[in-house]
User: Which sequence fits this backbone?
């Protein structure tokens, strides 16, 4: 057995404060955008149409932010969560710059916290992951620019589980550091474009920032049934290597008995579904929190609904002057939920029956 | 429940003469071509090879026309056929200009006819859909060019089905307008290239316009078994949102009990299969008619055969002069059929046993 | 039934010495790279990152060599192995030049040997296939450059099997020509780049040429379960038309009773898996031999392991001078094995239990 750097770690292999540079930078291409479309059928105009994006002031159509998130997340998996049992949550996620085809993504994580589980078989690893891009414009700009950073916590197998759980634990359980309940609007980074130039007809709706009401519930049209082939292709596209997604034989020996659908696959489906009712939510500003409440498996049917949690005016900052109010765009805080094998109802937001995903984010919405 | 513009219409939401601009323009890329190859395995040289296309005078390899058709069709689905029961037919389809990677497609439909079904639960919607491209050449040419237009009629659920079918129908059934049985050869638009420069060795056959005989039957080699994952990825690639293709749970409550394969997926498979015997049919000139005779489901195996219905010389028109005969290319009218779970035989063309698709088109064929 | 050139041959249709130019040149794009990533999840930095590739001196990220192999192989299938029963082996494979997106691949085969099987139902066809590229650099360079050549032998159905196997065989069985057991290191063609500029952090390992020991065994982390949809999409992406992969109904009548997974799909999975432990094996130099020992089917789980068979210094040759030793790169001869439904153990290399693939290759490894 040949060890190779830091990959494929078990819980015992992490230490707090450690910085891990993840391998395999990934050049993003139109092929990735097409795969994303084939997997999720997203219809937000910004990620679908170059003329639409240019009209707003982007230099090309940017990638959908959930695709960026999944790509960066995937980079971190071989080092952090190859031996994951489950992703438990995300938070403090901030999108900092758009990603275009031709950009090369890479990632770095810092270990923020570790907590061994009482059963002695696993533990929780908490990291903050930064995603970077190198852009190609005629030549390569060697400076990496941060495109996204977020905190996640994940349950990871121990290499040497304590067989007899009555034995004293030799490792002190450590508390995980606190995570902010949401990203403050003042910390959001509005894209340097003019959202007021949104063409409603192309976008599919005239509903804009002023039209959404806090507390409003939106039930997205349609459900989608998950398949093994699709979630494996998605997960590999992100170069995510977590064994639970790929090895049916290995999973047969677990309590679930089968392959788990990658959580980021569910998020991407809900992002695409949310088009119906949130047509002008061109891109994400922040991930306030995300939790996978239950696993999903191939052949399950998932549905999506959203509620408006908050709305915020946002400030921008010119290079030389004082902050000023963005009159073209605001941030809408949305809670997306996904239900499994049962379409959501108004009570799904509170009783959480059938919920598999609870995802709280800030979305950019044209005024 | 948040309504959003005109999307996700039921039968009652349409009115004759209405013009609907479909949302979400779609920039076409090499990624879409690769997905198309992965889904259908097309081997026509024109869509596969840039040097082959340039030798004929194209500026790049154009997209296969069936991929263009499916993309334009997909644009119209959220507005027209989200609540479709079945696509009943197509006709009067004309391909007007090649589509290249980098072009952005959009679509507009006009409602031509409406007819409520006697059962009071659904009705037929007939539309003419135009597909447009915006091309990128250094900058964007803002002028949209029509690449394809066609008529289709589709059965759509009513929002409020009449529970008791003996009740009088409050809505007058309207006749659907007639559709031409085929596109006249004089209306075809030959691509402005020189098909005589076809390299037979690269194309895979020396058989050309003069070698096909009216009445000739061609049985395409091989069959292909459909899968849920593939047809869902195809259908999402086209941003087609019809629920019947994606939601196994929803479909379980219907008479079919399972997800329907999108009809355009079958057409694309038959187009790819038709390579064996129609190698030099580089592209489509027109869709005379298309009918889905029976549904197909995942795990069904489909087969293809074709017969030559007609052949036509075609005229071109220089910018300043009189029409002249194209000596490099002619149009071959072909009837493609697809059979299900049974390879086709000569009698399949007449008795229609096992037929799921009957597709009549004009193909461009080098002389 | 319309015959078309030389495609879809049965055993009787081949003759020794015949040269076959395969149809349908194929322009390779970023879409193909993304599909390859979605299908296999390869993490070798060279094929994943343009900046990584440029740092070594490549003009762009080259395609993974196994993708090139599968593309070239696919070109040959319609002419050679549409009616294949099984690919039996490969050898004498040499990679001659990197392939980039935008290159157009084509292929030509020569029939080296034929041997009819005693059962009178099939025979072995041995060919040497050359793959070529046409590169696009501003205009098209019309000169084709060889990128790969290899020998393969495949069992092909007879069109007219001898029903009664006691009848005398009218065709003399011919011996197949011998195949070299491995490619001599002096014949390898090192890429004209500087492998010493490998960034270990991006590549995922500091382990280089000097760190591998002959006899060392590497067990690659994780297994992957095969699916029908994925292997069909892969096989179609390569425009490979062998019926055994696509037609469940046709296969139901065979002893296997189901679709066979394309062998090149297994090789590509093992190449991707081999990243764990062979991170710096940026590309392939040669295929010494490859054998599919048993068929694989959808739902089987496959695993990979490797052993180091040999290491070789390699010579380069300047345009004007004498050969000189490459100090930046060496060749490592690796035997990759794939097991089915059982993770490999040290004894798997010798007893071959559960083996489905035995693949012997030279890999380029930075010093």
Assistant:
């Amino acid at each position: 057995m040949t060890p190779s750097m830091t990959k494929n770690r078990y819980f015992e292999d992490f230490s707090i404060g450690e910085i891990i540079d993840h391998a395999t930078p990934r050049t993003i291409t139109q092929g990735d955008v097409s795969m994303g479309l084939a997997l999720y059928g997203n219809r937000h105009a910004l990620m679908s149409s170059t003329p639409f994006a240019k009209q707003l002031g982007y230099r090309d159509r940017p990638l959908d932010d959930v695709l960026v998130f999944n790509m960066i997340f995937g980079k971190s998996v071989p080092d952090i969560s190859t031996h994951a049992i489950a992703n438990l949550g995300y938070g403090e996620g901030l999108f900092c710059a758009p990603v275009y085809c031709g950009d090369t993504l890479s990632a770095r994580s810092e270990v923020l916290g570790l907590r061994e589980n009482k059963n002695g078989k696993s533990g929780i690893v908490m990291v903050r992951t930064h995603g970077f891009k190198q852009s190609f414009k005629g030549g390569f700009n060697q400076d990496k620019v941060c495109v996204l950073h977020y905190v996640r916590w994940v349950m990871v197998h121990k290499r040497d589980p304590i067989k007899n759980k009555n034995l004293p634990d030799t490792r002190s359980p450590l508390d995980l550091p606190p995570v902010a309940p949401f990203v403050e609007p003042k910390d959001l980074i509005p894209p340097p474009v003019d959202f007021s130039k949104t063409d409603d007809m192309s976008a599919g709706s005239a509903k804009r920032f002023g039209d959404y009401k806090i507390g409003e519930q939106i039930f997205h049209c349609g459900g989608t049934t998950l398949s093994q082939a699709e979630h494996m292709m998605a997960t590999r596209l992100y170069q995510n290597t977590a064994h639970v997604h790929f090895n049916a034989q290995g999973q047969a020996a677990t309590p679930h008995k089968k392959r788990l659908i990658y959580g980021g696959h569910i998020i991407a489906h809900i992002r695409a579904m949310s088009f119906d009712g949130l047509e002008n939510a061109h891109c994400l500003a922040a991930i306030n929190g995300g939790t996978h409440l239950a696993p999903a498996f191939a052949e399950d049917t998932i549905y999506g609904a959203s509620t408006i949690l908050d709305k915020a005016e946002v400030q921008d900052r010119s290079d030389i002057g004082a902050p000023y109010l963005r009159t073209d765009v605001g941030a809408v805080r949305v809670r997306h939920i996904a239900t499994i094998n049962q379409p959501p109802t108004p009570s799904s937001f509170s009783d959480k029956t059938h919920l598999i995903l609870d995802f709280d984010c800030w979305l950019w919405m044209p005024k």
